[in-house]
Write a structure and sequence with these properties.
- The complex is a heterodimer.
- Chain A has one domain.
- The longest helix of chain A has 27 residues.
- Chain A is about 70% helix and about 0% strand.
- Chain A is mainly alpha-helical.
- Chain A contains nine helices and no strands.
- By secondary structure, chain B is largely without helices or strands.
- The N and C termini of chain B lie far apart (about 25 Å).
- The chains are: A mainly alpha, B little secondary structure.
- The interface between A and B is medium-sized, with 20 and 9 residues.
Chain lengths: ~220, ~10
């Protein structure tokens, strides 16, 4: 494990904590896309099918359990919690899941490391994670006042992806036979989706203004 | 035989 990978994972963890903080303490999910959260739950459920069959490390298993548990509990909170669910604006969060799920599934059936159920599901989760942020980005554009926690949440998610790219570059040069086209290409696409958001995030930070994305 | 890589990343 290199420093970029660890920093990436910690940033990912921090993004989840920021979102949980918003939900638990402020009891609000305003500006958060349930569609994106449901897609993430599906991403982790399909990627970590190996959790009980392939042991990599205690760190790996613990992180998997954290991401599975947090993603499903976030979905539960937004859908079912008495107070939190009231702040969810369904009319703004209109992205359709299957526009993303079906193409990712077809791609996973065509492009995978091995044609087995586990490997197809793994490839599907990689493709789906790459585009799962789209409903959230669409919702951000529609939101007039993006609160700080929501802005930080999306920023941390983007930073996590950027750090993973540095991790891959590092591993490519330090490990033999480290080539992973599926994760690299999807990861690059995923990070590029944040480019526009990053631009406005830094602009608002530089000018000390509230974050707002142009429609 | 196509070999799937070990998945050590999250």
């Amino acid at each position: 494990m290199n420093i970029f990978r660890l920093a990436g994972d910690m940033t990912h963890l921090a993004s989840v904590l920021v979102l949980l903080l918003k939900i638990h303490t402020i009891k609000s999910c305003a500006g958060i896309s349930l569609k994106t959260q449901e897609l993430y739950a599906l991403v982790f459920a399909t990627r970590y099918l190996d959790i009980f069959t392939d042991f990599i490390s205690l760190y790996n298993t613990t992180m998997k359990l954290i991401f599975l548990g947090s993603s499903f509990s976030i979905v539960w909170y937004i859908r079912n919690h008495k107070i939190v669910s009231r702040s969810y604006d369904k009319s703004q969060d209109t992205f359709r899941h299957y526009f993303l799920i079906i193409p990712c599934l077809l791609l996973a059936l065509l492009v995978n490391e091995k044609f087995t159920f586990k490997e197809v599901m793994w490839a599907f989760s990689i493709y789906l994670e790459a585009v799962a942020i789209l409903p959230q980005l669409v919702l951000l554009q529609r939101t007039r006042n993006i609160d700080n926690l929501t802005g930080q949440y999306v920023f941390l998610l983007g930073a996590y992806r950027a750090l993973y790219i540095l991790n891959w570059i590092y591993r490519y040069f330090t490990e033999t036979h480290y080539v992973h086209w599926i994760t690299w290409v999807s990861g690059l696409v995923q990070t590029l989706l944040y480019a526009d958001f990053f631009y406005y995030y830094f602009e608002s930070w530089k000018n000390n203004k509230k974050l707002q994305l142009p429609a | 035989q196509l070999q799937a890589s070990p998945k050590d990343e999250l």
